[in-house]
Amino acid sequence: MLKFSEDHEWAKLDDDICTVGISPHAVEQLGDIVFVELPDTGTSVSKGDAVAVFESVKAASDIYSPAAGDITEVNSALLDDLAAITPENAMQNWLFKIKVSDVGDLESLMDEDAYNALIG
Amino acid sequence: MAGDWKQLISQVPRQKGRIPQIGIHLLSCEQGIRPVDIKQTPLYDFHIANGARMVPFAGWDMPVQYAQGIKAEHLATRNGAGLFDVSHMVQVELSGSGADAFFERLTPTDISAVAEGRVRYSLFLNDTGGVLDDLMVARLDGNLHLVVNAGRAQHDIDHLRQNLGAETKSASTKIDVHHDKALLALQGPQAGAVLSSLGLDLDGLHFMDIRRFELNSIPLVITRSGYTGEDGFEISMPAAAAVKIAETLIATGKVTLAGLGARDTLRLEAGLPLWGHELDETITPTMAGLKFALSKKRREAADFPGADVILDEFTHGPKRRLVGLLAAGARPVRDGTILLNDGVEVGVITSGGFSPSLDRPAALGLVDAGLADTGTIITAATRGNETPMTVASLPIVPHRYFRG
Q1: A61, B64: Cβ pair inside 8 Å?
Q2: ipTM score here?
Q3: Residue A38's domain spans which residues?
Q4: What is the pLDDT of residue B382?
Q5: pLDDT confidence of B285, banded at 50, 70, 90?
Q6: Domain holding A42: CATH number?
Q7: Interface of B with A in 329-368 (CB under 8 A)
Q8: Pairing of strands A44-45, A69-74
Q9: Is B221 part of the contact surface with chain A (CB cutoff 8 Å)?
Q10: How far is B337 from chain A (nearest CA, A)?
Q11: Is CB count within 10 Å lower at the N or C end of chain A?
């Protein structure tokens, strides 16, 4: 199940593991990424917590957790090559995985069609 | 939220915890709520056709970047030649026998020393020594040709019109606002070679010179100046000819289109002030490192707005000074971030971002004069964290103007 938030995160749920990234549209809007901060594995997060940071030359953006749970895995390989963070591979470039406490947290998110309508 | 997209950065909250999404959210939001009366330059369609991402800026719909992105456009300008549409800046002409005296009444510039064909950097000052706007003034065919900031253009035109008066009793002064002109900036070490390859004879045109040219029967007014720290040119032309000139420059194959994003990172590295950041009504030229803009003759006469405040600072030093600041880490420190020394506020980041040339974050800031020496370590209070920053001399990246 793939969903999107109004804040341009994508969230993919497999059983109770939610993989989170940011949308191609968001990467395109940010432009050249110069700094990324990811959460620590094992961190407990609430839905809506700012858990990661993306900064481009001109803009800064917090990335929010779409669900409550524990961070189980972080894609720290992203930090080795920020230039590889592009709109083209934004759906493959996941940021972190959460073992969610309540999959119902994701129900308020949009499906892909609704998200595409939002960004026009 | 429409307006100056740079404001987005200055609104980055500095505390930890649940904070409003500012980057992605507002950038995309702005696309949806572009003001209905937003202005387009003569190059609007050209920008779209060349893959620009447009953003509202000072009431204009402007390219913030093209497909290559800010870093690539920045480096292409530093290493070759970048082409910027700066038609949002407003061109104003002062003519008549009272023009010089009128201009001097509002600025600290000895305009009588600006000979035909020369350009000066100048400032509109208020009575407390603050800067109402910064501008370029050139003498061409005897008249004064001003270029003022887009975001201050209406203020400046009102300021000029409201102050026109005293001289008109004995001498005539006329103010013409040239809305029918476009302005392109061609900047970078290859800019001169590009113009020469098109048949323009730049011989004798040095930094801060202005001269009339013609290209494919289009009349141009070119100044050797810019906002990047590089050799470069600002080219004024009839609005109707702007696309043709831009296409001619791009067709040389040596010119990269560059947007407002690169323009900002380039001028930040060059230590050049941006009104609303390094300059405003409360910041004096002495604080902003602009003593060179205070003509000796005018200082001796002490006859410009705010002279008492500015001359006192000129002699004894200002309370705060504009400096470069380099952060220790990889994370940019943004505009508005408070600077601390032993927990006491000693300054503020006026422009904070990323330096593509140095491939690291860089910033400009106003700091207490006692802490303005190069190498001084100051603490930036970023979102509850504390980032050490080192004071760097300006410019952060050396200027490479062509002085002949």
Answers
A1: no
A2: 0.88
A3: 2-102
A4: 80
A5: very high
A6: 2.40.50.100
A7: 330-332, 334, 353-354, 356, 361
A8: antiparallel
A9: no
A10: 13
A11: C
Phi–psi pair at B298, nearest 5 degrees:
-75, -35
Q: Does A79 touch chain B (CB under 8 A)?
A: no
* A111 lies in some domain: no
Higher pLDDT among residues B31 and B389, named by residue: B389
Quote the pTM value.
0.92
pLDDT in tens, A3-44: 999 999 999 999 999 999 999 999 998 999 999 999 999 999
**What is the pLDDT confidence band of residue B9, given thresholds at 50, 70 and 90?**
very low
3-state class (DSSP) for residue A18:
strand
- With beta carbons under 8 A apart, name residues in chain A contacting B23: 29-30, 54-56, 59-62
Q: Is the peptide bond before B395 cis (omega within 30 degrees of 0)?
A: yes
Q: Which residue has the tokens 């404001």?
A: B7
A21 close to A91: Cβ distance less than 8 angstroms: yes
Q: Cβ neighbours of residue B209 under 8 Å, at least 6 residues apart?
A: B117, B118, B119, B223, B224
* Cβ–Cβ contact B14 with A under 8 A: no
- Which three-class secondary structure state does DSSP give residue A112? helix
The token duo for B72 is 């690539």
Contact list in A for residue B6 (CB cut-off 8 A) is: 58
**pLDDT digits over B298-347, tens only?**
999 999 999 999 999 999 999 999 999 999 889 999 999 999 999 999 99
| pLDDT attached to residue B216 | 94
Looking at the DSSP assignment, which residues form a beta bridge with residue B235? B184, B222
User: What is the gyration radius of the CA atoms in chain B, in angstroms?
Assistant: 21
Please, what are the domains in chain B? 82-240+274-316 (3.30.1360.120), 317-392 (2.40.30.110)
